User: Fold this.
Amino acid sequence: MIGKEEERSNPSSETHPEVLQVQTDLDIMHKATALLCVVNKPTRFMRAAMAFCNELAAQWQCERVSLGLIKGRYMRLKAMSHCEHISRKMQLIQDIESAMEECFDQDVEVTFPTRPDAMVIAKAAAHVSQKHGPSALLSVPLHLDDKIEAVVTFERPVSEPFDEKSINAICLA
Assistant:
């Protein structure tokens, strides 16, 4: 009898998968709230954008997170985690912008390495990984009123690729 009472007072994720789901949902909400707190502190756009990238890099164990905004028909990288100044002359910046444009053009999350069932083009993402990595990449479009306004690109070690669960969590946060 003691065993059953102990099981009820200390539910495990094996016996209660809904508990695990609630914990995951709470973790995502915590990350989103923490991100909002960090971004709302600075009074200038560039500082807020850098804080946004740095916080996302810390939350998702990324080596680099970049934020690009639409300017005309092109994507322009505006902020990068752990980086004070960005020069468009740098090949890395141009390559990340190409990966962001790839995401923008398809209006879908783009990953590299690609999932076997993926129906997306990830040529520019593969180029960034191979030339500046190796790294696992995820580019996510950010929408406002059904229009893409920005793209965020996440990079982390190739040994830690973005799986469906982490992609969904990042998109929710």
